[in-house]
Amino acid sequence: MNEIDEIDLASVRREYTKGGLRRNDLTPNPLTLFELWLKQACEARLSDPTAMSVATVDETGQPYQRIVLLKHFDDEGLVFYTNMGSRKAQHLEKNNKISLHFPWYPLERQVNFTGVAERLSPIEVVKYFHSRPKDSQIAAWASQQSSKISARGILEGKFLELKQKFKNGEVPLPSFWGGFRVVFNSVEFWQGGAHRLHDRFLYQREGDSWKIDRLAP
């Protein structure tokens, strides 16, 4: 029996004791509560508080998830950037329905957004691209995201080649690099509770306002 077999997974559990979420804690607009929770995640010095799991679906209906960093949000939606040749971008080209999940485990909180992804304008993409560290800009050129490579050395060699090429000048925006704005129509807030009596509230867009329902855990 190996080490993993000796772990009793059924017994791995703990109580959630950080406190609850009540209806009077909610805000009319879900973004207001999300902004507060995100601020608290940053203040708690969580690792990568802006990290979110992005879920897309391919043409066969197979779901995929990956971690991406949130770069901006407002009433128009939540923004992230990516290589437009990536698997997630290809999925969204055919099916723009998307889900974003923020797993703030140390605070015993989760937030989930569902909606549709819309491509950002070239002006938005250029502005953000040139705000990135120069090495990150070069890395965008070096990697054909989601393509198959035979060895890491190929990627590192391409990066060093491009770093030399752009060492004395501005890195241009790659034609294959862009971003998405997620226009959301539902948001769920989850707060852990004692005895597995978790608090869940679902916001659903109804015209210019939001309907709020408590969900059983």
What does it look like?
This protein is an alpha+beta fold and 217 residues long. It has a single domain, classed as Electron Transport, Fmn-binding Protein, Chain A (Pnp Oxidase, Chain A, Roll), CATH 2.30.110.10. 24% of the residues lie in helices and 34% in strands. It is built from five helices and nine strands, in the order αββββαββαααβββ. The chain has helices at residues 30-43, 87-94, 122-129, 134-142, 152-165, and strands at residues 51-57, 63-69, 72-74, 77-83, 97-104, 109-119, 177-191, 199-206, 209-215. Strands 1, 2, 3, 4, 5, 6, 7, 8 and 9 form a nine-stranded antiparallel sheet that branches. It is globular, with a radius of gyration of 20 Å. The protein starts with 29 loop residues before the first helix and ends with a strand. The model has no long low-confidence stretch (mean pLDDT 91).
Blueprint (SSEs and pairs):
Layout: H1 30-43, E1 51-57, E2 63-69, E3 72-74, E4 77-83, H2 87-94, E5 97-104, E6 109-119, H3 122-129, H4 134-142, H5 152-165, E7 177-191, E8 199-206, E9 209-215
Antiparallel strand pairs: 1-2, 1-5, 3-4, 4-7, 5-6, 6-7, 7-8, 8-9
Subunit structure: Homodimer.
Enzyme class: oxidoreductase
Binding site for FMN: 66-71, 81-82, 87-88, 110, 145-146, 190, 200
